[in-house]
User: Which sequence fits this backbone?
């Protein structure tokens, strides 16, 4: 029944209704009822014709609103599908895991990167490879090193939402105050060590007042020293590779020299990263690992901060262009009730224009090559952001290990680091143990 | 059974059925299922694969299993007696007939109604080595306080210290117990020339012993399952020094997708808790039950 005929039928039905008491406003009431009825029928008819898909996105506040605006725009652009978007924080994924295990997942879900391969390889997520090929989406559409992210053993289980890129940040004011050249960040590990020593200060109580630098994300140095956590060709873990051991030896020397207990104590007093009390903004740490979100954060919380960003320092023979990248992912559960429709929406959502707009809203970088130059994103690029983008375009991009035991591997790396920190194992021993544990765990997936 | 009795039975069952169904579906089934999963390789999304006892043998070869068990026992063995003692002391103080007694009781009980998450955040600030009130207080005596939660040596004592914040629950139970001690016992003790300590030792303590036993048992159960405050305050760090059993179990289940392994951990924890409780009951000869005479 077309909407017009529905309305007419409703009018006719309303017209045939016997008049009640000779109330003055009865005809008006009839018209009102008829209109309401017609509208309900019209909406009902449309709803019946439409397929409704559920979409769990992981952003609240203004970012969530930006996502919802995109959902609304998609809904308005066509009448076949209606996307019902909801803000479902990922947390540790318990809710998502429960919905997948219970066989009643949403059609499109946002997950952390470490969840993609374990869930996908376990059979809970759709392999998007054939659909992406049909839609003509290829590796070339994405930035270098990003297409393989979220893929494992030839299957692609999701698409990255927006990218976070890490760089080496330094506080130019702190450099200048310490009598150092504010335009000369360290390029080698030796220079980094030297600057760290010069910039670290202690107060009368013996407590740290400023830390020159703190290596926080272990994997960065593993890669900067020329190592890897797994071989992308064979998909075998390579945690105990000599380069990784060398990186751990450097880390161990650092912890010993600056006393990890003192550092932890100092760090416990640091303020929230997304606040004016961010230790980097306050000069409590002079050099740090920081992502492109700092462009937005500094603009808001420390507009006068004089800072620079560049590639991470590396030892001779290492990688001087390491660019760590992270992202959350959009995945389609294997048991999604409306897989084709969800995929259609996903393709729209990850198309260059939408990708550019959403990344700009989040102060992240769109994963699509062809989105970078679009005004929606390009107009927001600041000089700092341009540096991050350049690092991403030209550097050695690495993403968290996309193995079925990815997070377990990362945790094993942390366990190895903890063992090195408390002196219970040498770097070689600790990494050897981690390698054996990961191999053993990986066996379960073979 | 007569027709009416049968009818009553069915009616009764019908009335308790919401609870019964909930209990079967949300408690009995998961418990039984976890026993089965503990003998399998199970990552939640794929079908479980039978591996017999391997999860259990792996568990005993896992150094973190020992470490988390040690952390949990440390918090229990030191934390429970400390909290039993502190809550008893507070209860005895609050049992004194003083002005504003009701107000004091309310004030001391108040912290235990603060949500665990809020209390954990508050304590994180309190114990902050750099600007927390605890270290600032110590500095008045020129003591450079430790790193507390940031220091592997001090993190567990810090958690026990912070845990005392929540003694209100057991304190109230002690208070009820104290008020049940018959006054004539104290009067008799007075006549026998008992001093304050002797009255406490030979009257209060025996009369309170069932309450102490109850608080001890509840303490064992809750401290073996400790999770929320630690998850928020330290996340298990630094250097795994506060990685307790339940936290490691959670990591295995939801972060490493090792649900089979986590199920095995849960069953081992159940056995440990049961053994501890049986041990407590077996050695509860010190508990004096009034009814026994």
Assistant:
């Amino acid at each position: 029944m077309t909407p017009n005929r529905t309305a007419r039928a409703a009018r006719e039905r309303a017209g045939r209704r016997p008049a009640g008491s000779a109330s003055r406003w009865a005809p008006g009431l009839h018209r009102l009822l008829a209109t309401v009825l017609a509208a309900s029928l019209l909406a009902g008819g449309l709803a019946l014709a439409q397929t409704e898909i559920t979409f769990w996105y992981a952003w609240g506040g203004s970012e969530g609103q930006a996502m919802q605006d995109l959902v609304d725009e998609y809904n308005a652009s066509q009448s076949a599908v209606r996307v019902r978007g909801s803000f479902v924080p990922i947390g540790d994924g318990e809710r998502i895991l429960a919905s997948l295990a219970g066989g009643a997942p949403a059609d499109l879900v946002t997950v952390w990167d470490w969840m993609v391969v374990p869930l996908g390889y376990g059979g809970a997520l759709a392999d998007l490879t054939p659909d992406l090929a049909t839609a003509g989406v290829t590796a070339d559409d994405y930035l270098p090193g990003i297409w393989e992210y979220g893929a494992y053993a030839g299957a692609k289980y999701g698409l990255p939402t927006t990218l976070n890129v890490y760089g080496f940040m330094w506080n130019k004011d702190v450099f200048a105050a310490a009598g150092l050249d504010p335009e000369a960040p360290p390029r080698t590990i030796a220079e980094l060590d030297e600057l760290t020593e010069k910039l670290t200060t202690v107060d009368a109580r013996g407590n740290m007042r400023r830390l020159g630098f703190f290596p926080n994300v272990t994997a960065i140095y593993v890669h900067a020293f020329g190592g890897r956590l797994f071989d992308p060709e064979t998909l075998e873990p390579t945690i105990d590779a000599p380069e990784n051991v060398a990186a751990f030896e450097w880390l161990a020397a650092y912890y010993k020299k600056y006393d990890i207990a003192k550092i932890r104590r100092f760090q416990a007093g640091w303020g929230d990263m997304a606040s004016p009390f961010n230790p980097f903004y306050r000069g409590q740490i002079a050099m740090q690992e920081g992502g492109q979100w700092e462009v937005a954060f500094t603009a808001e919380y420390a507009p006068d901060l004089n800072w620079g960003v560049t590639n991470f320092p590396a030892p001779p023979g290492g990688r001087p262009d390491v660019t760590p990248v992270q992202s959350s992912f959009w995945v389609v559960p294997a048991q999604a009730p409306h897989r084709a429709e969800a995929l259609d929406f996903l393709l729209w959502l990850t198309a260059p224009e939408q990708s550019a707009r959403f990344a700009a809203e989040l102060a992240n970088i769109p994963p699509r090559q062809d989105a970078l130059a679009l005004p929606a994103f390009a107009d927001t690029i600041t000089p700092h952001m341009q540096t991050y983008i350049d690092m991403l375009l030209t550097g050695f991009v690495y993403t968290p290990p996309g193995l079925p035991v990815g997070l377990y591997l990362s945790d094993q790396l942390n366990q190895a680091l903890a063992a090195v920190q408390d002196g219970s194992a040498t770097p070689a021993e600790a990494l050897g143990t981690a390698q054996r544990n990961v191999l053993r765990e990986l066996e379960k997936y073979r | 059974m007569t027709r009416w009795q049968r009818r009553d039975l069915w009616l009764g069952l019908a009335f308790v059925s919401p609870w019964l169904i909930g209990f079967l579906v949300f408690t009995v089934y998961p418990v039984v299922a976890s026993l089965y999963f503990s003998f399998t390789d199970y990552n939640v999304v794929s079908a479980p694969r039978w591996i017999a006892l391997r999860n259990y043998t792996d568990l005993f070869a896992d150094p973190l299993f020992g470490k988390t068990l040690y952390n949990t026992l440390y918090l229990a063995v030191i934390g429970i007696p400390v909290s039993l003692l502190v809550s008893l002391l507070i209860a005895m103080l609050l049992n004194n007939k003083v002005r504003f007694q009701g107000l004091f009781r309310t004030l001391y009980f108040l912290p235990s109604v603060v949500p665990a998450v809020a209390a954990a955040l508050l304590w994180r600030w309190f114990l902050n080595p750099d600007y927390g009130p605890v270290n600032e207080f110590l500095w008045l005596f020129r003591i450079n306080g430790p790193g507390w939660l940031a220091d592997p040596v001090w993190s567990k004592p810090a958690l026990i210290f912070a845990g005392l914040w929540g003694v209100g629950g057991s304190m109230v139970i002690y208070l009820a117990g104290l008020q049940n001690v018959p006054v004539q016992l104290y009067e008799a003790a007075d006549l026998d020339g008992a001093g304050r300590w002797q009255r406490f030792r030979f009257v209060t303590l025996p009369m309170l012993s069932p309450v102490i036993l109850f608080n001890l048992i509840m303490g064992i159960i809750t401290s073996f399952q400790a999770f929320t405050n630690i998850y928020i305050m330290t996340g298990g760090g630094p250097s795994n020094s506060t990685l307790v059993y339940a936290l490691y179990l959670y990591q295995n289940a939801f972060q490493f997708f090792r649900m089979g392994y986590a199920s095995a951990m849960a069953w081992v924890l159940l056995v440990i808790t049961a053994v501890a409780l049986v041990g407590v009951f077996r050695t509860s000869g010190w508990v004096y039950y009034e009814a026994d005479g």
